[in-house]
Design goal:
This protein is α/β, with parallel strands linked by helices. The chain is 21% helix and 42% strand.
Length: 155
């Protein structure tokens, strides 16, 4: 399979990364006013241990920032509409959030808890072309040290 990276204009990267960063900053300050950042009909998907969907609990108001603190270690725009955010606390807590934006508003959220993630773009021109856009940092650093389920997200 051939691998080619998509071209992204730097202004698009800044815009989507700024929106997602603003969400984490707002939530970490304890504020609940996120309506301008997230669509009212947000699509959500979760993979991980039961009852570990901490961000969705925070977004819906069923928990507070004090119950689980999100400290992003990296915020990575991977295409003009998608941002991957990764964080961990110690050896037992690892999370990845994938946010999809449209017109500057978050419309889709995928939450992964204690799960390795690889984000791959699939294009079919003359033949399928797969491009790895992002892979879990801990996956690259500690794969031999830790056993977690692994998922490939094709966009």
């Amino acid at each position: 399979m051939e691998s080619t990276k998509p071209s992204i204009r730097s202004s698009e990267i800044v815009d989507i990364a700024t929106t997602v960063h603003a969400l984490y900053k707002t939530l970490s300050s304890g504020e609940r006013e996120i309506s301008g950042l997230i669509a009212s009909d947000l699509e959500w998907w979760f993979h991980g241990p039961h009852d570990c969907h901490h961000m969705m609990k925070m977004l819906t108001g069923t928990s507070s920032q004090s119950e689980f603190k999100f400290d992003p270690k990296s915020i990575n725009p991977i295409d003009p509409k998608c941002v991957v955010v990764e964080g961990w606390e110690g050896k037992n807590v690892y999370w990845v959030h994938v946010w999809t934006l449209q017109n500057g508003v978050i419309i889709n959220f995928r939450e992964y808890f204690n799960t390795w993630l690889t984000v791959t773009m699939v294009r079919a021109i003359d033949r399928p072309v797969l491009t790895t856009l992002w892979q879990s940092y801990l996956h690259r650093q500690q794969m031999a040290k830790r056993s977690l389920p692994e998922i490939v997200l094709a966009i």
